[in-house]
Design a protein that fits this description.
mainly alpha; 13 helices; MetI-like fold; 71% helix
Length: 275
């Protein structure tokens, strides 16, 4: 019986490792291929490791279309959007989780119902609204419309509902006002959920292509996903440069994940503890 459990446990680990390799291999192939010369990219049969290690793809990719500026643009848009998203979601999640007011549940259902509408459905009204305010071809036009996400509100609301109401009542008895309760009690206890939302939001904004594509028409204001599309021409694709810049574009999201990883699993698991 014991040997059977050991065998089952071993098989589970083997399956997890195989699945992880299958999902991770494409990204690994992109990173390794970024250090290959143009001729090595199309060898048949293909070779996983480069025969001649080179950084030429990175040098030419950074020079093509001022890619350094594109990284700065993406960093500004992504960081600003993430901060705004976390602030709005945290405040809205607290309101839905701990405040009782008429129509609260109906309003929350209405917020979550917006998940049924994809960007393709609402992008024309959003575009016309931005045009009316003169925000086309501006960073604000990219940042503001997707700032408040129902997913982030749901994530924080679920986590905050697991915080005992007795803690809030005790704080009020001690003389704390709502601002102090929110900043000194709710926010510190919600760090796992906030960290999880930070990772999600950063990845969403950094990889966003469609909305910046609609709003931005100035080459100097392009973000990284838009710039990567420049490597795909009408008759040819600059594969070496594209793979190199794609590899560099992975680094910021990887750094964010490594910073907040210790809270990530905890935040995901705690959002479903209550209600």
């Amino acid at each position: 019986m014991k040997s059977r459990k050991v065998l089952i446990g071993f098989l589970k680990y083997v399956i997890v490792i195989v699945v992880a390799v299958i999902f991770f291999f494409p990204m690994l192939w992109v990173v390794i291929s970024a250090f290959k010369g143009e001729s090595e990219l199309f060898l048949n049969p293909p070779r996983i490791l480069p025969v001649h290690f080179t950084l030429d793809n990175f040098k030419s990719g950074l020079k093509f279309g001022n890619f350094t500026q594109y990284f700065v643009n993406s960093a500004y848009v992504t960081i600003t959007s993430t901060i705004i998203t976390v602030i709005i979601s945290t405040m809205a999640g607290y309101g839905f989780a701990k405040f009782k007011f008429p129509g609260r549940d109906v309003l929350f259902i209405g917020v979550m119902a917006t998940l049924m509408f994809s960007l393709e459905i609402i992008m024309i009204p959003m575009f016309l609204t931005l045009k009316g305010y003169g925000l086309i071809n501006t960073f604000i036009g990219i940042i503001i419309p997707p700032a408040a996400t129902p997913t982030g509100i749901f994530l924080l609301r679920q986590h905050m509902r697991s915080i005992p109401d007795e803690l809030l009542e005790a704080a009020k008895i001690d003389g704390a006002n709502e601002y102090q309760i929110f900043t000194k009690l709710i926010v510190p206890l919600s760090v796992p959920a906030i960290s999880t939302l930070t990772i999600f939001s950063f990845v969403w904004r950094w990889n966003d292509y469609l909305w910046p594509f609609l709003v931005i028409n100035d080459d100097k204001k392009r973000t990284v996903p838009l710039a990567l599309a420049n490597f795909v021409g009408q008759y040819a694709v600059r594969w070496g440069d594209l793979l190199a810049m794609t590899t560099l574009s992975i680094i910021p999201t990887l750094i964010i994940f490594l910073i907040f990883q210790k809270y990530f699993i905890k935040g995901i698991s705690m959002t479903g503890l209550k209600g």
